[in-house]
Amino acid sequence: MCDQISWHVVPAIKQDQLDNFQALTREMVDFTRTESGVLCYQRFASEDGKFVHGYERYADSAAALAHLRNFATLFSERLSALVDRERFTVFGQPSRELWAVLDCFGAIYLRPFGDLAYYSDSTINPTLAWQSPRFSFLFTHLFSFPLSSRSG
User: In angstroms, what CA-CA distances link 108 with 6, 37, 71, 113?
Assistant: First the structure.
């Protein structure tokens, strides 16, 4: 069983707050780089800038919990003034302590499907993943459509 925990969060940016949100996101990303156990911390925006999809992955529940404690202290209040959370989906099997914290975000929990031996390559740096042969294959064969035709 994999101890990794990840989540996908979708906040709706409040009107006229996109620039403020981007500045705060930059600060959050810079801080998160200093945290131990963070495997992935990325944001993706809809073309109209109304929604940002966040994907975060942690080595285990302890690393995720440490991140959330830092987040609560440093960023939570400011972020709440800029966005309304639309969805918060958790992947994996969080510890009871982490589960209690995630419940405060209205999280939906998804566990691994079946007893399959799933694959996760946590050794690939997500910012360099586009250079890997697997990414190149997937992008070329599965996602060959104009990006402008897709929305949030």
Answer: 12, 22, 20, 15
Distance from chain centroid for Cα 146: 24
The answer to whether the beta carbons of residues 55 and 126 sit under 8 Å apart is no
Per-residue pLDDT reduced to its tens digit, 86-122: 999 999 999 999 999 999 999 999 988 877 766 665 5
Burial of 124 (0-12, 13-18, 19+ CB in 10 A): middle
pLDDT band for 151, please (50, 70, 90 cuts): very low
> CA 37: distance to chain centroid?
14
Is residue 75 within 8 Å of 81, Cβ to Cβ? no
Find where tokens 């200093």 sit.
34
Taken in order of first residue, the domains within the chain and their CATH numbers are 5-121 (3.30.70.100)
